[in-house]
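Comment thread on ticket #2218

A.B. wrote:
> Attaching the input chain for the structure job we discussed in standup.
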Amino acid sequence: MSTVRLEKVCKAFGDVPVVRDVSLDLPTGSLTVFLGPSGCGKTTTLRMLAGLESVSSGRIYIGDNDVTDLDPRDRNIAMVFQNYALYPHKTVAENMAFGLRVRKVDPAEIERRIRTASQLLGLSQLLERRPRQLSGGQMQRVALGRALVRDAEVFLLDEPLSNLDAKLRVQMREEIYKLQRRLGKSMVYVTHDQVEAMTLADQIAIMRDGQVQQVASPLEIFDKPVNLYVATFIGTPEMNILTMRREGNRLLAPGLSVQPGGPLPAVKDGVPVKVGIRPDHVQLAVNESDASAWLTVDVCEQLGTTTLLSGQLGEQRFRALLPRTQARVGDRLPIHLLSEHFHFFDAETGLRLDDHRPTGP
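C.D. wrote:
> Ran it. Output below, let me know if you need it in another format.
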């Protein structure tokens, strides 16, 4: 069963389309992340779900109800904003209670919900404080608590961690993960941070220019990106993309020759193909004769347990993420590409190619 369903949802501001034909099913109790760069339409899609933006065309359903034309208050949703949006003159308890009081919920029920939410979020000792007396993480918890007391069917979170420092983001990400699993409520989460998406989501919808590129579980997207855009957007460091051509059972490029151990792309000999390989699927060759190519290093980043090397592989830029090594700028290193981890994409369309093991000589 889907808690939320979008059917060919579009949004335009004047003559400018910002969301185009978005169709999605968000399963009940799941956490779905809208992921993409600024301006890709993810927040606008979330705001249409919330009823804060009108829909130019298409329909939105929550449960069995068509909510496309309903006001936000009639959609049984709760939203957590990027900037917290707390009333500075009200206490934590008053901020959490405000929406319920507007809806004339019984005071005893309001107190019960605040008590339950504050215990879940570790706010019980802070209920009488005002926002200026709270840290960034505590204010984010209050914003979450204000949403929780609504007892909504769907929770919408718009880049809720972007104002926090790196350490606090990790802590709050873990809190949101545990909270969603504990509540079993459907959540829709907007972010441009792929680490947040990969660690939080049951499914990710990757967006670009107002369109959904791929919807799948985090690992499926990582392992089988549908196009070059998704391939280079997911993964840190990003996937290397090499322009090569097939000649029989080999893949060739200036300074690079590989005979893959796995299937080859379904292209004719001599036709260019984009070959993707993640930086951690590269090894230093034990013997120079085993090398797929030679990497000329021009950047060496020591990351502690690993070393990220960037440089030239023939005529193309390349990155290799290796166990900690003492390589230096200017070194020319023999490397071995783990060809079983190759991804193949059409050089013109950027779409993923079906694998094809060639027959004959």
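A.B. wrote:
> Thanks. Noting for the ticket: Residues 356-361 have pLDDT under 50 and may be disordered.
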